[in-house]
Every structure is written in structure tokens, then in C-alpha cells.
Design goal:
257 residues; alpha+beta; 8-stranded antiparallel beta barrel; 22% helix
């Protein structure tokens, strides 16, 4: 059965937090926001791009309009478990998402041109995106362990991503949830998602914790790290960062968090 929510339009604001700021924020949220029913969930997304990385290079130039496409799973997938094909666009600060529930097998066939999505508006938009870029292929996998919070009775949602990581090999949602670190150990990525302005009480918490807005793209940072000069030890050998292992079992999920 397809997910109930397939279209979303909202503002998304990002913040980069250290460990102390994360602990402060979560403490101050008590009594105002609630952790959703899934608790902490490992999320993996494969980002598709052209062979010359056209999509991410354009996005990193910070245009008024940018777009990307990804295949997302909540926990480790198998070939036929539910995953979500998402088209994400951002224009003038507003994020627009379209997504379809599918499987890894169907998604592979879709990008190879052998599978058609349902011929509704969302299916047409995602298919048109694929056809416009023609040579889309798996380019990068982003993984993190997410806690999602919601405001009872309101539209405010907040997510905290722990241990953000990436890899550019084994680009399948069925392999593992392991990857190389995107941020220093203990850092998290906060995203606030709201359809209107931030509530005053939340603005006060952010000010008190010296939590400032940051322009940050997980895929963009992975691309930057992959194309930076390799770290070299005193022995003249390339220094390999430690792999962050998978720590969570598959969990079903249908929300946009």
C-alpha cells in the first residue's frame, strides 16, 4: 500500500550542533515536543546523479532553485521491502517533495528505463525528471541515525541526525548502513521543518544555546570530501577515515521526517 503522505511543501532550516548543544536542545524540548513513535531510526538514501555530477555541482553553487532525486529506506532494505523514491526541489527557501513507494528491484528497473511509475501527477513528475537528465545513476549514499520530534497539535517538526555518514561504493540499500563520517564525532545535524514561522519559544531556546543556522548539504559535503586532497600521514601513505558501522535493524516508516 502506498504511503498516505506523498506531497509536502514547507520551510526547512538546518543547524550544525556539537554534543553539548545537542544535549541542551533535547533537554529544553521536554514538555514541548514529543519523540515520534519510531524512536531513533537509521535512514539511508541513495542520491542519483549524472556521470559528471551535474546535479550536486549545480546545487553547491547555491542557486535560487535546485533539485535532486534519491531512493530512501528506513533501516536496511531487501529487494522487495518498501522504499521511497523522492524528488526534492527547493525554490526561494521553500522545499517541495514528491515521493512514491516502491521497491529496490522496481527502482533499479525504473532508472534503467524498464519500469514505469503509476501514471498520476507525482509519477509523471518523477519520470519527467529522470528523462530530462537521461544518464542518472547511483552516485552517493547518505546514512544517519535520526530522532524526529513533533509538536502536539501543531505543524512544527524537528529532526536530529546522529552520526551522519556516507559512502560511494556498494551503492545499494540492501548492503549495510555503514559509512565514512560527514561530521566530527559527537556532532549532529538539526533540521526544523515548519509551514509558517518558528514559534517564539523555540527561537529563545536556539538563542540560549547559541545554535545558529547553517547552510549544509549532506550529499554536498560528501562530494566535497571525496574530491578534497587525501589526508597523508608522515609515512607518505593516504590516511583512511574510520568506517562508522551499522547499528540499527530495519524499521517500517511512512512519514516525511
Amino acid at each position: 500500500m502506498e504511503e498516505a503522505i506523498s506531497v509536502m511543501q514547507r520551510y526547512e532550516v538546518k543547524y550544525l550542533l556539537n554534543g553539548d548543544q545537542t544535549a541542551f536542545l533535547l533537554d529544553r524540548l521536554r514538555g514541548r515536543m514529543e519523540l515520534d513513535q519510531y524512536g531513533r531510526t537509521s535512514i539511508a538514501s541513495i542520491y542519483y546523479d549524472t556521470p559528471d555530477h551535474r546535479l550536486i555541482r549545480a546545487s553547491m553553487e547555491k542557486p535560487e532553485f535546485k533539485e535532486k532525486i534519491r531512493l530512501r529506506s528506513y533501516g536496511l532494505a531487501d529487494q522487495n521491502s518498501p522504499v521511497f523514491l523522492e524528488l526534492k526541489r527547493k525554490a526561494n527557501g521553500i522545499v517541495y517533495k514528491r515521493r512514491k513507494q516502491t521497491t529496490v528491484t522496481e527502482a533499479d528497473a525504473f532508472f534503467a528505463g524498464f519500469h514505469m511509475l503509476k501514471n498520476d501527477q507525482i509519477g509523471k513528475e518523477i519520470t519527467a525528471f529522470r528523462d530530462a537528465y537521461k544518464t542518472l545513476r547511483p552516485a552517493c549514499m547518505i546514512i544517519y541515525d535520526r530522532e524526529a520530534y513533533f509538536e502536539p497539535g501543531g505543524d512544527l517538526r524537528l529532526t536530529v541526525d546522529f552520526a551522519p555518514r556516507y559512502r560511494t561504493d556498494h551503492l545499494t540499500l540492501t548492503h549495510s548502513m555503514a559509512g565514512l563520517p560527514l561530521r566530527p564525532r559527537g556532532d549532529t545535524i538539526l533540521e526544523i521543518k515548519v509551514q509558517q514561522a518558528l514559534p517564539l519559544w523555540l527561537s529563545h531556546i536556539l538563542d540560549e544555546g547559541a545554535i545558529r543556522k547553517a547552510s549544509f548539504s549532506k550529499y554536498g559535503e560528501a562530494y566535497r570530501l571525496e574530491h578534497a586532497a587525501p589526508a597523508v600521514t608522515l609515512m607518505g601513505k593516504e590516511k583512511k577515515p574510520c568506517l562508522i558501522p551499522s547499528i540499527q535493524l530495519p524499521l517500517p516508516r511512512t512519514s516525511f521526517s
